[in-house]
Each structure stands twice: as C-alpha cells, then as structure tokens.
Amino acid sequence: MKKIAILLMVASVFVSCATSKTVRVSKKTIKGNWTLSTITYSESGTYNISLLDDATQACFEGSSWQFTPNNNTGIYNINNAACSTGDRHFIFTIQEVDPETGLYDFLLKPTNAKGKSVTNSGYRMRLSQLSDTTMQWQQTVNVEGKPFVITMNYNKF
Questions:
Q1: Is residue 140 part of a domain?
Q2: Where is the signal peptide (predicted)?
Q3: What is the extent of the structural domain holding 28?
Q4: Distance (Å, rounded) from C-alpha 27 to C-alpha 21?
Q5: Within a domain: residue 2?
C-alpha cells in the first residue's frame, strides 16, 4: 500500500509540472522555418526602432527564423545586404497566459551558437496569433508614457 501511495504522489508531481496541452500543441506548430514578413506599429508615423536591440524594421522584414521546440532554441538570420547580416541564436519559452483565448507570453533571449546567454536581458512578447501557416507577436513598450504596440507577422515556409 505504501508503494502505491508513493507512486501516486510521484505521478501527481510529474503531472502538475508538465506543460499544458495547449502549450505543447503551440510548440509543435511553431516548429520549423518562418519568415518575418511585416512589422507594424499601433500609432502612425515614422519610427527609428531597434528591434531586439539588434536591427531596424527594414533589416528584420524578410528575415528567416527557425524554431526548434524540443530544446527551445532558434536562429534568426537577417539577410538584408544593407544590414549586419548573419545568424543570431536564441532560446525561447512559451508561457501560457489564457488557454481559452490561446494567447501567450513569448520570451526570447539571445545566446551564442553554443546556447550560452550573451546578455542578462530577454524580450517578452505576446504570441497573439498562431496557425499552421501564420504567427503574430506583439510587443508593448511605453512611448511618452503611453502604450505602443509593435506587431510582427510571420509566414511559415
């Protein structure tokens, strides 16, 4: 009887620590290669924004992204010749916010090619839309004390 009780207790710990089904499905959908097709802003105007403390909107649009969810790693490649090109490595996590709406916080943290963190900062975005062919991230920042939303739209290839 003691062995059964211990087995049930261990099993309940594993179940309570397991990733939710919704997050597991999302990771499966994210897996693969994507293109960052467009970046838009919640306010009209011309902005000089450095996304992910790396490059401008013009550099990021058309960039290639690869997500490997089994180890939560990825690579994005800026391929605009007018920009600093090349691979950038990162780790990512999806944290469930609301399973009913399917919205998540997406955390991306730059790393080197070996997966070691290169900075203490990370970038939190809302995974606001995800299908088998499209994905959308939204990052909210404050501009002059007001929320300003940067929307990044991806297409899977």
A1: yes
A2: 1-18
A3: 20-156
A4: 10
A5: no
Residue 134 within any structural domain of the chain: yes
3-class secondary structure per residue, 83-101: CCCEEEEEEEEEEEEECCC
pLDDT at 8: 37
Q: Give the phi and the psi of residue 83 in degrees, each rounded to 5.
A: -120, 170
> Which CATH number does the domain housing residue 145 bear?
2.40.128.280
- Six-digit token string for 6: 């211990």
Residue 76: count other Cβ atoms within 10 Å of its Cβ: 23
Low-confidence ranges of the chain (pLDDT < 70): 1-24, 96, 98-99, 101-103
pLDDT tens, position by position, 61-87:
999 999 998 999 999 999 999 999 999
In-domain check, residue 82: yes
